[in-house]
Amino acid sequence: MNHLSKLSTFALLAFTLTATSACQDTSRRSDSGSDQQPPSADAFASLALDAREDLLQSFTIDADTLDTVVGEQGTTISFSWNAGLTYPDGSPVTGDVNLELIEIYDRGSMLVTRMPTDGRLPSGEPGQLISGGEHYVNATQNGESLELNGHFFLEAPTDNTGGFDPQMELFRAETEDGLAAGLQDNSVWVEGSGNGSWCCNDDESDTGNGNPFYTLTSDQFGWSNIDRWSNDPRPKTSVTVEVPEGWDITNCAIYVTDDIQPNTLTTLTGALDSPIFDSGSFERIPVGLAMHVILVTENDGDWSYGIQNLTVEGDDTVVFASAEDLSVTDSQGLMDALNALP
Predict the structure, then answer these.
(1) N or C, which end of the chain has less CB nearby within 10 Å?
(2) pLDDT digits (tens, 9 = 90+) for 245-255
(3) Are residues 208 and 258 both part of a single domain?
């Protein structure tokens, strides 16, 4: 198994969020404000590019037999008996191909890859999802993406996300133009069952305590997410976050976590030349939610971040007053910091 390090330049990202100032052993605190200057948009965007490169796994399989592969976190990819691969012109593929896989089972990985659980409801309004695993699957030969005839099956271990949840469904990543998101695209999750794809299996375990895998059937490569809509019944409100001068949506992001649901991560929206991030025109943060607000940006090729905790009362404001208070770490250090939160 070889890890790929080939990805093209990312489209400009817009991030959000999160929480209480926490340091890991891999972090270093800036000594003064002069150590942390507003980065360029490209420098900030490259952090997610690098994270996806690091998480992208590649397996060599025979196009004639389409062998089963197992990812580092237990995700299994197999193919239907009548499946095959074709080039974009429709001609059949033979010989060795690369099967690519990204596995995302925690909010730390969601953040560094900029794949939070932001969904779009059928009404067009934003909604919050709870994930049972996000995945990217693709097949290439000599750098060219291939197309799938038939289906592939993806099995995601339910233990990776806290156990089986019978409400999980299939979601797809879609760009703001409504197109299927590629590996490099900024995207939002939309309901994706139908047209030859579906998820998930019922609880058929002998104990009744949950199936050990979610099983997804797909007739296309790309991003998929095993999710359900959050159904928190509490009244909703907005949370506003102010970042230091010189930072805006182009060179930082704000995310919000839920202390009760570790498999969810919400992005707050911002604007050009504005230090203010919020939930947009929709009130979607539950009143009474115990959460963390996370600011992430770039510093000399590493992540720079701050975390503050908050119990939502209504129309709350969180201020990151100075870049001097941010901690600097690599991608693994930031994932560890996020996953250590409640």
Answers:
(1) N
(2) 999 999 999 99
(3) no
